[in-house]
Structure formats: structure tokens, C-alpha cells
Design goal:
It contains three helices and 15 strands. By secondary structure, it is of the alpha/beta class. It folds into two domains: 55 residues, no CATH class; 161 residues, NagB/RpiA/CoA transferase-like (Rossmann fold, 3-Layer(aba) Sandwich). Strands 9-6-5-4-10-13-14-15 form an eight-stranded mixed sheet, with helices on one face. Strands 2-1-3 form a three-stranded antiparallel sheet, with no helix packed on it. Strand 5 and strand 6 form a beta hairpin. The radius of gyration is 18 Å and the shape is globular. The N terminus is likely disordered.
Length: 239
């Protein structure tokens, strides 16, 4: 329901299901809760102002790719271990100070078996509009909910700046195109890290998430390589 052009509208995507609500003047805005939905404070919940009547051209693609990824995850529960085995020996061929993984949510491919020389780190959300921060984390080490409720190392673990970043994707293409969840966390993070120094970004996905071409906008960060359960795919420079 939209009342005129002045009432702000928000959209929230939960594993491909979109909930839309409108602020009513004179009343507190309440999120519609429906049986069967567990709304967690994590990056799958994207609440953002939208222009009434506008359509996100990537929304339908995200919905389809989330459904596909759920199926691929169910079919290949060992995909994370297989993907880690596909990293070329000695890659990336230069010293690595720190590398960033991620704590998988939903049907994301689990990157926890990936190992590189250098300090291992996981991201933490400190604010919805801020880049992710990365904190040291040994396998099996303690985790606590971050600002969005995602499991992350605490501040006591210590902050690092990764020079290799493994990022989850909803879809990818061989030119480095990446489709994310739509919240902009990784676009902001990649831009921030690349401004600090050389950075290699590897998209982590199931092979079936590949598309001939991912729709790219000016702010979208491209990948340097893709890692799947079937292959390691370098992105040619200049593409």
C-alpha cells in the first residue's frame, strides 16, 4: 500500500522473498511479521528507501539466483571442500599479509576450508552503510553476533586489512561481473580496500551460478578470479 508520494516505502528480501511496507504518518512503522518467516538481523535483510513505483532491474535476477543457489547447495554439500582444493598451488604467487573469508549464511558456499599463507580473517558489520571490517580468526575460534547479527570475531581479535578477499556471490560471469545481495556491503568494502593498496578479490560460488553476463553498474566492484567446486577461473585483465 502506498499513500501518495510522500510516504517512504521499504523493501526487504529474505532468501528471495520480498516484503514491502509503507510508513504511515502518525503511527510507528511496524515490520509485517508472517508465520513461517524468521526475520534475523543479517545482511539478507536489506531495508532501504525506494522510490514509489520504481523497480530494481536486478531484483528478479536475485530472486531466481537465490532459489538456484539453494538447490545447488542441497545437491553438493561438500562443495566448499572441493572448491578449496581447486586453488592453484602457490597462488597468488606473492606474499599475503592477510586474507578475508566470510561466515556463510543461508545457502552460501562455505569457504572455511580455504587456506593461504598469511593471517586469516573474517568480516564484521559495524554499521549498515559502512564497509566491512576484518578481524583475525583462527578456525574454530570464538564468534559473536555483529551489528546485523552475523557471527563474527569480536574487537578483541584485532583488526587487519586483507590483501586477498574471498567474497560470496549470487551470480558471476567470466569478465569478473558479480551479483551480490543488494546491500552494497562488498562494493563498499572492496572500494575501501583497493584504495588502501593492492587487492585480489575472488568470488566464491557454485559452478551453476555462472551467467553469460551479469548486469553491472558503475559502482559494482569486479572480481579478479572465481573459485567454484569445479574450477579456479582467473579473470583476464582488461575485460
Amino acid at each position: 500500500m502506498v499513500l501518495g508520494n510522500t510516504a517512504p516505502t521499504w523493501s526487504i528480501q529474505v532468501e528471495g522473498i520480498e516484503l514491502t511496507f509503507t510508513a504511515l504518518r502518525g503511527a510507528a512503522t511496524r515490520l509485517p511479521l508472517q508465520a513461517g518467516f524468521l526475520l534475523q538481523a543479517r545482511f539478507l535483510l536489506q531495508a532501504r528507501p525506494a522510490i514509489a513505483g520504481s523497480v530494481d532491474p536486478k531484483a528478479e535476477l536475485r530472486t531466481r539466483m537465490r532459489a538456484l543457489r539453494r538447490r545447488l547447495a542441497a545437491e553438493a554439500p561438500d562443495a566448499g571442500v572441493r572448491a578449496a582444493a581447486n586453488l592453484p598451488p602457490g597462488w597468488p604467487g606473492r606474499p599475503v599479509g592477510a586474507y578475508g573469508l566470510y561466515h556463510p549464511t543461508g545457502s552460501e558456499l562455505d569457504p572455511s576450508a580455504i587456506r593461504l599463507d598469511g593471517e586469516r580473517a573474517l568480516p564484521a558489520v559495524i554499521a549498515r552503510a559502512a564497509p566491512l571490517v576484518f578481524r583475525r580468526h583462527a578456525p574454530g575460534g570464538p564468534l559473536a553476533p555483529d551489528a546485523l547479527g552475523i557471527a563474527a570475531p569480536t574487537e578483541a581479535a584485532g583488526h587487519v586489512w586483507p590483501d586477498v578477499l574471498f567474497a560470496p556471490v549470487l551470480a558471476f560471469d567470466r569478465r569478473g561481473g558479480r551479483l551480490g545481495q543488494g546491500g552494497g556491503f562488498y562494493d563498499r568494502t572492496i572500494a575501501d580496500l583497493r584504495a588502501r593498496g593492492p587487492l585480489l578479490v575472488v568470488g566464491v560460488a557454485f559452478a551453476g551460478q555462472e551467467l553469460p553476463e551479469v548486469p553491472i553498474e558503475a559502482h559494482d566492484a569486479r572480481l579478479d578470479a572465481i573459485l567454484t567446486e569445479t574450477a579456479f577461473i582467473p579473470v583476464a585483465t582488461g575485460t
